[in-house]
Each structure stands twice: as C-alpha cells, then as structure tokens.
Amino acid sequence: MINKERLLNHFLEYVQTDSETKHEAAMGRRVAEDLKAMGLEVITDNAGETFGSDGFNVLARFPGELPGEPMLLSAHMDTVVPGNGVKPQIIDGVISTDGTTVLGGDDKSGVCGIIEAVRVILEKGLPHRSAELLFSIGEEGGMRGAKAFDASLLKSKCGYIFDSSGAPGKIIVQAPGQMKIDANVIGKRAHAGLAPEQGISAIQVAAKGVAAMNLLRIDEETTCNIGTFTADFATNIVPDKVHIFGEIRSRNYDKLVAQAEHMRDCLQKACDEAGAKLECDLITNYVSYKIEEDSELVGYLKRAIEKIGCTPLVTAGGGGSDANIWNQKGIPSVVLGTGMTKVHTTEETLKVRDLEDTARLALALLTLE
Ligand SMILES: [Zn+2]
User: Is 362 helix (H, G, I), strand (E, B) or coil?
Assistant: First the structure.
C-alpha cells in the first residue's frame, strides 16, 4: 500500500539534506514544510539553543478516529560526522554512499518511514489511531534535543522510536543508563629538583586511585571505562592537577550509581592518604529502561510486525537513544530496527526493502485495529 517510488525519492532527498548534529536547521525546515504540506499541525521549539545547535525539534499532531491512547512515533534528524554532501547510490537494492560520508540512514530511514505511513493514510483516507510524530535533533550528541523537549506537549502513552540497526521486526525493550565521572585530583606544585618533598604529585595520587578501581566489565549488565587521564607538566615540576573523565553504563540503575560512587571513593581515598584534594562530579547522562515483553505496548507492536510479514525479535540494547529520554519523561518507549547497517561509518548501507518495511510497520502501527 505504500508508495515505494515516493518513499525512496523522499529518502534520497533527505539524506542529501545536510544535518550533522548541531546543524539540523535546513533538515528541520524541510521536515516541517513537508508535514505542513500534508495538512498536519506542526510545532517547533528552541531546543537547539540549549546545546549550540541551529536546529529545532519538529512535532506534528496526527489525530485519529480509531480507539486507543495516542502513540509517539519518533526518529532523529541529525547525523554523525562526516555527514555533509552525501552522494547516495543504489546497487542491487542496497543504498550506500561514495565512501566519503555516512549515509544517514541513521536515522532518516526512520524519519521517512514514519512520514510515508502518514502520507498513505491521508491519501487513502484510512482510519487510524491518534499519534504524535516527533523528529528530534542532537540525538547523536547525547540525546540533547529529546532532553530539551517540553514533554508536557505530548499526550502519548507509549512510544515507538525507529532508530536501530537490525531488520524491521527488531524490538529493543531495554537499554542501559549512563553516568559520567568528571574529576580533578589537585595535588601541590613544587620544584621537582629543588624541593620535591614540598609537593604532592597529582599524577601519583590519581594513578593510585585509578589502579584501585574495578573497571571495564563489571557484570553482565554493567560496564565502565576511563577515557581521559590528563596532566601535562614540565619534568621539573611536581604536577598539581590531573583531569579524569570516564563513563559507567548499566541496565540496573542501582548498580550504575554504585559503580560511579565506587570510582569516586577510590579517588577520594587516594587523595586523603596523600593530602591531595578531589573535585568530582558524577553526572547522570541518561537512565536505563526496561519494558516488559508481555506489556500491551510490545504485544501491539508484535501484532503490527507480524501483519507486515516480518518476525518480531525482542532484544536488549547496549547504548543510549532518545528512547531512554522518553522513558525517563514518563512515556514507555521501545526502539525499532529499520535495517540500517554499519552506522556511524562511511560504509553505512540500507536495503531498499528494509526502508519499505519500516514504512509498512509504521503504517501497521497506526492502522491496526
Ligand atoms: Zn540513530
């Protein structure tokens, strides 16, 4: 029932509209215009201002006559770098680039799939459920657009976020939360040759603190890593400052917090023993979520997936996405596969067939009785 040619052309146009994170304005204008041309009520916001972006989130309301609570259908408009000047090509039903940029199927496959489904419904006058269509910015930069979005504008009671690799049918029902640890170990500066005993080496203290930490794989649902350990002094100076920056992920919120506190405590102990000072921030970047497989949300989704002839595959995700933010803001949401592959690389591809199935799935979600 979907219009394959229109969908493909739409996708090719969107991927050729530059929208690297923080530069989503042109894409936002295009999406908003397209939705308005379809006769939908469109709302944009100032979310970009919160993280140095020229872009904005785009919300469209799509009231329907079928019974059921409104649902959120969402995908993000921004892409990773290098995402400008995409030259898409289609070989044997697979869309790729010339190898100099990402394709941006992450996540324009989701954006186009949702819009095509709505176009079909409007064109054919199909009865459908009420929905809110939300196209976000800044997802790749830490879900900044979703975080800044005023969720009180939404009436949806569940969310379907089209934004994962894996063929249509894949359902991510849980994903980890993430915290960051941002610490400075402050020692005491002294001349390393003339009076080293007057100094406190921040490098030595910080190293001792880090060495005492449990790091990397903590258990089956918890990981952590320190990515930055920075000090840069002359060799004749006892260093008085080290910057440490790391992350913790867990699908269990208590474990997430416990691991972050463990890392801070290790640094604190090393500082106390040496008479150094610790400045430490534990930042909750996003929290984990878990949707039960026997929930109505997943049950309805499975019926829609089966209706389009695909196979539901329920799984856990390893990273954060806008779904973490919607769950945090009180809208139970899952992430759906759109067929995108090798995302965040210049080898990214998308099968035309998967793009079509993504649109079919969005259509089924909106029209299932
Ligand atoms: Zn994405």
Answer: helix
Of 312, 50, 285, 57, the C-alpha closest to 175 is 285
**What is the C-alpha to C-alpha distance for residues 127 and 216, in angstroms, rounded to an integer?**
51
Torsion of CA 3, 5, 8, 10, to 10 degrees: -80
Query: Across residues 106-115, what is the average pLDDT?
Result: 98
Full domain range(s) for residue 135? 4-175+289-367
SS3 131: strand
356 catalytic, yes or no?
no
Q: Do 124 and 65 belong together in one domain?
A: yes
| Entry pTM | 0.87
Which of 233, 254, 286 is the last residue in one of the domains?
286
Q: Are 113 and 145 in contact (CB under 8 A)?
A: no
Question: 139: CA distance to ligand 1 center in Å?
Answer: 7
Residue among 107, 139, 240, 322 flagged as catalytic? 139
Q: Are residues 98 and 145 in the same domain?
A: yes
Nearest to 22 by CA among 133, 145, 112: 145
Is the pLDDT assigned to residue 318 strictly greater than 80?
Answer: no
- Of 20, 78, 106, 140, which is the active-site residue? 78
Helix (H, G, I), strand (E, B) or coil at 263: helix
322/200 Cα distance (integer angstroms): 44
pLDDT surpassing 80 at residue 127: yes
Task: For residue 88, give the H/E element and its range.
Answer: none
| CA count, 13 A, side-chain hemisphere, 2 | 29
* The amino acid at 79: T
DSSP 212-258: TS--EEEETTEEEEEEEEE----TTEE--EEEEEEEEEESSHHHHHH
How many domains, the chain?
A: 2
Joined together, the tokens standing for residue 341 give 């592959």
Alpha-carbon dihedral angle through residues 146, 247, 52, 346, given to the nearest 10 degrees: -90
Q: What is the distance in A from the centroid of ligand 1 to the CA of 15?
A: 13
- Establish whether 34 is a catalytic residue: no
Q: What are 96-110's pLDDT values in tens digits?
A: 999 999 999 999 999
